[in-house]
Amino acid sequence: MEHGWRSRSAGWLAWALLTAAGGVWLARAELARLHEDFDTDGRIVHRLLSQQVVQYDAVLATLALLAPPADGPRPEQRLPAINPAILSVLRRDDAQPWPDGPHAQALAQAEARSRTLRRAEVAAPDLPSGRYLLVLAAQPSSFALAIDLAGTIPWRDWPMDPRHSPVRVRVEQGDRAFTVQPGRAAVGPWTFGFRKTLAAQSQPFDVVAERSVRWAELPWARIAGWSIAVGLALAALQAWLRQRAARRRAEELLRLGQAARLNTLGELGAGLAHELNQPLTAVLANAQAARRLLDDEPPELDAARDAMTQAAAQARRAAEVVGRLRRLVDQPRGPADLQPVALQEVVRGALYLLEPERQRRGVTVQEADPPAPVKVQADPVALEQIVHNLLVNALQALDAVPADRRRLAVETGGDGAHGWLAVDDGGPGIPPDALPRVFEPFFSTREGGLGLGLSLCESLAGQMGGTLTAGRSTLGGARFELRLPLAAGGAA
């Protein structure tokens, strides 16, 4: 049925939405954690490299301060053995040029800048090969350090594994760069970046870190766990909702059953009057005849016995009628006032209550509603009882046909002053000779039937100013059509 399909679709949609929302939240949390770790590693790398290059400024300042004599020992030449990042130490004394070489002019220019700025200056930077010169102008001697960036990296304190870390680290100046850590190429949809200049004005190199995050790095295990947890929670919720719906359905069916029994009381009165009138009349007539026969002189005893025997037979017949009609009601109930009721809402409520029965029998239900609700003047309880009874009769009739013919159609509409509701089934139908009697009390075409259901429905329809008719359905079975007065503005 459409209601069950909608319920399942809503469950799957809720599962998909909650899974997607939880997955996005977990992915964002993981990306935030990875970015925080990346940013922390970038700051550590910047601090370590800044500490290293600041030491070169300190070494040059120490050499300029001590300034060993030009013609004496050269202790600065032992620095490469102490610090492997310092490849060599160059010195220029007053009135002397820098040693001949490919960088002599660059050294002179850097020395001039150093003298103006009063700090060390970089000369002949060759970042792709990781080499540069650092010059400090001083009196009586100027010094220069040939520095190897690869030896500058403090691997012992490095925050990442350079062989497996996905973070790429470079030292850049302009468009030239020295790769400290190769990392991984940016192939993921998320990329983090870090750039900061070293904390040494003499060596204005930028520390640049990059890191990409691939789809495979998202927390798929946690997302799958969340999806399973959501599925289990929704399944438990749906089970609870089904139990609650089943409990409400049972309570509603009980209410309708009680209303049916209570409303049958009036029908029982009519049935009792109809069934008991003839035997009671016969009992009275035979009793009076027997009395006259006994008063005769001499009394006609044989004829009197025959009259009493016939009276006893009629009394037993009346007792059988009473026995059939016992145990049908518990307490009386008064009629409700008529009020506007939407036929479609009553049909949906009845189909909802009978959903388990429909599924058990494998019946297909077709609903055809008009564009707008059709509201009629009716007693809500009586109308529910009529629709419920008609649908139950249709479901029971479909038990007699093969599964592929078990179809039930419910239509509602309005025409002029009346709203109508039709129930068609694909069952065996009503025999033509039984059709005029289907609404008679105690007449039933179903074995074991009491024969009061349709009679009660017709009486209830009449009490509300409507009619209930029976006929042949286009589906091959029976068609019952209920017509009731329209409420004000109640027709589409």
Characterize this entry briefly.
The protein is an alpha+beta fold. 48% of the residues lie in helices and 20% in strands. A 5-stranded mixed sheet has the order 10-12-13-15-14. Strands 1-4-3-2 form a 4-stranded antiparallel sheet.
Task: Describe this entry's structure for a reader.
The strands form four sheets. Strands 10-12-13-15-14 form a five-stranded mixed beta sheet. It has a four-stranded antiparallel beta sheet with strand order 1-4-3-2. It has 492 residues and is α+β, with helices and mostly antiparallel strands. The longest helix has 76 residues, at 220-295. It has ten helices and 15 strands. Mean pLDDT is 83; it is low at 327-335. The protein starts with a helix and ends in a 7-residue tail after the last strand. Helix 5 crosses helix 9 (380-398) and helix 9 runs antiparallel to helix 10. It has three domains: 1-218, no CATH class; 244-324; 339-485, Histidine kinase-like ATPase, C-terminal domain (Heat Shock Protein 90), CATH 3.30.565.10. Strand 14 (467-472) and strand 15 (478-485) form a beta hairpin.
